[in-house]
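To whoever is on call:

I kicked off a structure prediction for a single chain this morning and the downstream step that reads the tokens threw a length-mismatch warning. I double-checked the sequence; it's 355 residues and nothing unusual in it as far as I can see. Pasting both halves so you can look.
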Amino acid sequence: MKGKTDEMAFTPDDGLFLPDFCNIRTLFLVILMGELLAILLTLAGNTDISTSYSYLGLISLFILWIVLVSAALLCWGRRWLRRLSQIQAGFAAFAIILLITALFSYLVLYLLQNDADTRDFDSLHQGGFIIGNLVIAGMISAIALRYFYIQYNWRCQIRAEAEARIQALQSRIRPHFLFNSMNIIASLTRSNPALAERTVEDLSDLFRANLSGNQNHTTWEGELKLSQQYLAIEQLRLGNRLSVDWQIDAMPGDALLPSLTLQPLLENAIYHGIEPLPEGGTVQIRANRAGNRLSLLIENPVPQSMGRKQQGNQIAQDNVRQRLALFFQGMATLHAKTVGKHYSVTLTFPYRTHL
């Protein structure tokens, strides 16, 4: 998957190179291409302007029925086509289109053989009419299927490269998470050894459950759980100086996002905002949804001068920004700003439940 908008609704995850013909946008584009073909055939085969419109209507109706029925069969048979190899699925789709074209060609000849207004069809050799339609349908289908196959391979390659880059960026985040967590435990070791021991066990469970795999994405529910576990550890260190205000009911639990998206931003909010303030403060997390777009705001108080810590803040944010851009193919943004005594980071990304 790549680009801000997809030309057709491809679904590479199911292993089939054909686009999803059940998708309304895909069906619209296929109908549009069929109508363009009808216009080309009208211009190429009819020089009489007075009959061009009626001829275009007949050709459009003929092509439209072939397109709709073929798309319906490809949509209905997608589960079966997924069980075949790519070459077999391509030949099966090609055969379906040719079969539908032949059937409708026979139907047209049957309907027109006794129609006085279309006697010109009687003078045509029926075999030549059918073969001509099959040749045109075969050429157009072969070109389209080849295009779908090239697009599928290109998208898979782009996805593999993006996942490799995300994994490399994420590997930079995980050590920071580990080191900062170990620093928290080290501080607890001196003040409360028993609590430090329990925290080590909790941290071990946290890493085992969330960070041991190779997946570079997670659901909002999983990311939220990890972040809350991290905040619980920070709460042990900062006590009453740290409070968290969650306003996240608008965020769907099954929404996908890169792993370790929220946690580094919360870590920045605490390290650069809450910790330098003697009185501490509140980290606010607010979620909003507008149609298919989700947004997440992380806001925290900051001291008057953030000093050299600002650079570390930007490094983590740039990492998250790059992983969001790769994961959502440029359709996600991260904006940070300081307003008065508060610093906020806003994430905006599309709502997705599958890759």
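Update from on-call: the warning came from a stale cache, not from the record. Cleared it. Sanity check on the structure: Residues 1-7 have pLDDT under 50 and may be disordered.
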